[in-house]
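Run log, item B.
One chain of 294 residues. Sequence copied directly from the ordering sheet:
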Amino acid sequence: MVAEFLAHLAVERRMSAHTLDAYRRDLAALAAWALAQARALPGLQGDDLRAFVAAEHRRGLSPKSLQRRLSACRSFYRWLLKLGRIAASPADAIRAPKAARRLPQVLDVDEAVQLVEVSTDAPLGLRDRALLELLYSSGLRLSETCALKWGDLDFGQGLVTVLGKGGKQRVVPVGSHARNALQAWRAESGGQQAGFVFPGRGGGQISARAVQLRVKRLAMQRGVFKRVHPHLLRHSFASHMLESSGDLRGVQELLGHADIATTQIYTHLDFQHLARVYDAAHPRAKRKPGNGDG
């Protein structure tokens, strides 16, 4: 039954292998718990799932992991309900403990510029410059960047078409610096319309791991001493766009977020930035040491 559900996610909802693995682990944990209770998955009730969550919590799972477990359970039971195999979902009323929301780290504008302006004279310098400029210019996911082909880029309009999560297509602007870097890289590499923009060995797409390692190394070479990875450039893109425009819906569309709540985390980053500016600039923002209330 779980295998049938995972096949449904892979074929009909086109979920990534990474997401499918997470669903598989979460539902395997539920199935193992149900087996220990001598219960079948379709027969579980709300109290059973509460007991399952409590058992996983005692086992040391974090609130975030419990939330993911329950999300997988909800999807599974809604699928069973849709097929008519159960009369009601036992998972919909169950709530996991709230997890503290960690704000993503971002580069400030100066750090982002320092990172992307790598020397084009170095070996693979043109490729590295094009890669970093594109990640920061357009906020692409790592998987979207690796899969990008030259035919996806419209240099005349300054646009790139990518296939995001769930097979959803979106069109994103490409800044002038990124366009120039990409065109220089294409001229050197002889890239063809059907070819990958950043090919790996054998002409296939570059691996995500290769990009991660390269970005980390380039950051160290450029003197950016934060924990730099490709997704950090996406976070920085989103934060800087929101800070400049204040257009949350627009940033949501650029990032390809299905739920605006995912994008709203960047408003917290924006408020943090404004608070720092206020503390630094306002003459009465901070009380001087030793001052009483008068």
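Observations after the first pass:
- Strands lie at 153-154, 159-163, 169-173.
- Confidence is low (pLDDT under 50) at residues 287-294.
Flagged for discussion on Thursday.
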